[in-house]
Amino acid sequence: MKRIIGMCIGLCLFLYLGFCSAANLTLLGAGATFPYPLYDKWFHVYEKISKIKINYQPIGSGGGIRQLINRVVDFGGTDAFMSNDELKKAPAEILHFPTCLGAVVITYNLPGRPELRFTSKLIADIFLGKIKKWNDKRIKEINPDVSLPDMNIVVVHRSDGSGTTFIFSDYLSKTSYEWKERVGAGKSLKWPTGIGGKGNAGVAGLIRQIPGSIGYVELIYAEQNRMPVALIKNKSGHFIKPTLKSVSMAANIDIPSDTRVSITNTDAGYGYPISSFTWIIFYKEQAYGGRSKKRAEALAKLFWWMIHEGQKYNERFSYGRLPGVAVKRAEAIIKKMTYNGKPVLR
Amino acid sequence: MKSLQLKDKIFKWLLLLCAFFVILTVAGMCVTLPLYSLPVLKHMGWKFVFSTTWDPVKNRFGIIPFLAGTIISSFMALLISLPFSISVALLTGEYLKKGKIAMFFKYMTDLTAGIPSVIYGFWALFVLVPFVQRLEMRFNIIPYGVGLFTASIVLSVMIIPYTASIAREVISLVPDDLREAGYSLGATRWEVIRHIVLPYARSGIFAGILLALGRAIGETMAVTMVIGNRDQLPKSIFEPANTMASAIANQFTEATSDIYLSALIGLGFVLFLVTVLINIAGRYMIKRLEIKR
Description:
The complex is a heterodimer. Chain A is of the alpha/beta class.
């Protein structure tokens, strides 16, 4: 009997606690894993300021899009902006705004960790399997000061579908006709050569294990693990080292008003060419499924904070800051949010 | 008296209900898997099962590379593991039935079954891969280190306890009078094992092998870490490849288009069919191998 009473009390406590947390507003988000470390920090800080809890699940961009379309979450996060087809599948209009910038870097395992330079053509030829040796004259031509070994090139790519692969293949599709025809751009590809590792950690692990390997990972991951990174020649002809500054610079272009733009192979003179935005997605009309006006307002205020005050955390967490143009565009988009047709933010 | 009967009845119904739910889950899979893979079957036709191209960008889905990867890696693993698992089973079931050493072997083999597969994967990536690389360099093959061969070795280590513990049990169930009859006819220990114990226990040992094979076919984490994840038909056992389970686990989260998602579910359906087929064939073999009295 005592046990049953104990259990009842426990259950009541449990329900009570659950009720408490439900009484405070909790916003739900899901999606991209790539900006998760930054989002985690943001939402933690924002909870302290505003007493609004944000629960963001890093389940991948695809999952974020699916959950927003099914209206399970208040907002989604995605590394690749939604295509027109995907937008058509949604029950209502979905808006995008960028939160930060990331980049994909080329890393490799070569004796002596030389600093290499690549052109887009060279990268495409290596990842298409056309250049098979490190001492190939096409690599030597661009890297005359580096002594390159007579080693096989082992290409390492992502085995899981990922925004990183999308950004990388998007860049190669823009710069190489052959890549576009044979492989194309996507989150998962039909790779002509090489081996696959799961996640940034999987790719990095394989590169560390296999001498002569080359692969691509996120900039943050390469920085945290002190991996060698290559300089890449951009559209303006400069060899650019991937840094937070050069990544941020890549976004200094004319951004369309819906912010759905790929900034790989950027026109910006000193921008790193394999950079990309990552986006938050949400419904323009917030009055759906019995959601309260308070919820919509909290969401809009959170978004506003993310593109202004939140930006100061970007660089500390190795993400590029939004340049001025992008912030302006994001402001306009957040202001488009409505509740029963009336704007949420004034 | 009446209330006791009623309790008995309720208990019986409760058992039935629970059993029914298990059946219901499997039946549900039998319905939903083909249902959700319909779009890709319509889109690809027979090519889904016979094509070797898997290209999510151009929406071309052929599962041969994964099917081949799964079958080759799990059967190779079985082949590598068999001598070891049978030896362990004979040692603990026939030679050392009691005593500290026997207990030690017994616990250790059972323990290896309980280690999470991601640990096997890590171990393989950091210990086995460099070793295989050196081997490949000696044979003048591109030293990937990862590939079908490495995956099969990891799998074989993982499945040894399954065959071993079942084989141990059936070997110790062989009646002692049969053994003694063998010895009384002047048979050596080897002859008793070869001609009496193994034939008597073979259907049980085969059941253990079947269980191990099932585990090898479905294993995901350890395989994906060392198989190289190349979605193409492997040309040799040292080449990188991919398995059905690993492909599903890798690609599922970011499969945004409907047809791609359907292709992955279709892949799951084929994996399901393969396990069912192997089990049916296995049951048949077990029946045939049984000693009739």
